[in-house]
């Protein structure tokens, strides 16, 4: 179909009315390209013939000069978009009404031809029957009788002619009414077809919009994944430089040395005390925290030996450390502080902690996994830190996420007395 339209440079108006605006623009653009292609081909042929010395016939020689727009391209007029043009909806409405009127008129003319033939035949037969009846009677052959018969015949003829005219007018009125009714029926039929076409176009646009959103969501997920990979590499390189990635810290090495020394001392005593390594073997924790009592036991038996919550190389509890408090309580503590303020609280969701951070508008909460022999953010930071203090100090210099730019600045201390962590250290 497209090749035929481009070959003939013509599209049927009924077919054009079925196209949406985007299809019309594409079709007109292709027709313009075909016109330019033909023109370039004709100009090239003319130049080639001129170079070969072939003179084109003067009588039929024609030249085309294209009108250019402001942009330097060939100017193209698209119906309905130029200033002063009727809107497409109005043009479509008028075309539908005109098609309905022409169809109804055509049908009315056919009905009228049939009606006129019926009327003519009816009165022709009636006239013949009446003449036969008159001739069948016994008329006198006298002149007066013939004259009277002639007058009677003319009067009868006029009477039939009058009735025929009345019947004709009546038939015309009926045909006219049928024509108007048919025009209305055709109009609504075409209107419904147009509405169905518009509804189909609307569904297609909605589907395209849904597809566009889906593609945008996929693109956003790919972008986030790429950003996460870049962030992972950045943190990993930075952590390697600082010497804080993976492995056990010096503190854990010291604990191991302490256990070895303790074992040696126990060999020289009659009643040895259990070592930390033996203590770890006897403690079996559930998969997830199930109560505050279990969390307190976990902290005392696993985290205190790692000096979780203490400042580096001191016996003082860090000002940012808090006990088992809720998200709401943490946000209440941070509510009157500036952006960058933070605290670390013991989590009730995982074996670990939650870092609560004060943004310019609102708060953020990051889970810290402490179930193994390292400390690391869940799903955000790939770095593994030997101690909880190492994690905090690392993110005083390095942001937590690239998108958020969270940098730990001011610790949020205690507000009540006794502090909310007192049960952990009793």
Automatic annotation (TrEMBL):
Keywords: Coiled coil, SH2 domain. Residues 149-210 form a coiled coil. One of its GO terms (cellular component) is cytoplasm. Pfam families: SH2. Residues 320-412 form the SH2 domain. SUPFAM superfamilies: SH2 domain. PROSITE patterns: SH2. This is SH2 domain containing 4B. It comes from Monodelphis domestica. The gene is SH2D4B.
